[in-house]
Amino acid sequence: MDFATNRPTTAKKPYILAVSSQKGGTARTTTSLALAWTWGRLGLDVTLVDADPVGATGLVASDWKGVRFIDGRSGDWLKNPIGDLVVVDAPALTAAESRSILDLAHGVLLTGSADPLSIRTLTVTNRRLAQARQTNPWLKVAGLLITAYDESVPLQVEILGHLRRSCPDLLIDHPIPELQEIREWPASLTEGVPDGPARLAYSVVADEILRLIRPELRRNEPNQDVLSWGDHFGLTMV
Length: 238
Description:
By secondary structure, the chain is of the alpha/beta class. It is built from seven helices and seven strands, in the order E-H-E-E-E-H-E-H-E-H-E-H-H-H.
């Protein structure tokens, strides 16, 4: 019990999820924003931390339901994270600033593109995560999310198929489609993830990640966007 507010306290500490990648241009900020917004809409207590030196996250996330925003570039947020979930828009794994975040995080979500470079950098990514586990042995990989996916490009389809075969336990098998509205969202100052296939895909991804990291926070029934995603692709979502 928090005697200052007379409210029951959460038994578990907040789960800290860092969103990172090996290189830039893989929608780390967009993914951080989409996950925080989606979970906030579901009634969860979410803290969104902008720890990327670029500082783009704070331009979008303002007054979202269930989401508090923290400018984490100074590192002060590391002292007392709060909420059910803490989503960190982290720097690339190659940046020195990423190490202190990985030392504290419970999980890391990797974003990548369906291109040859992403496949070649997986080995380097694994090496950097192994280094992080030397000081944080509990660090888990929540998955690899392919963003800006264009199914009309044969090479991207081929690479996604390769990832499905070679690392099925790592890959989140719901790529985020390449669409102008989702690409421009972080710079548009539009509240919430734009309606459409990308929003549906992010909703499914958010549900799957929640199932993995904090299953007790999931609803008994999928949210409406998850159900709509199933309808969109002719699937039954359970």
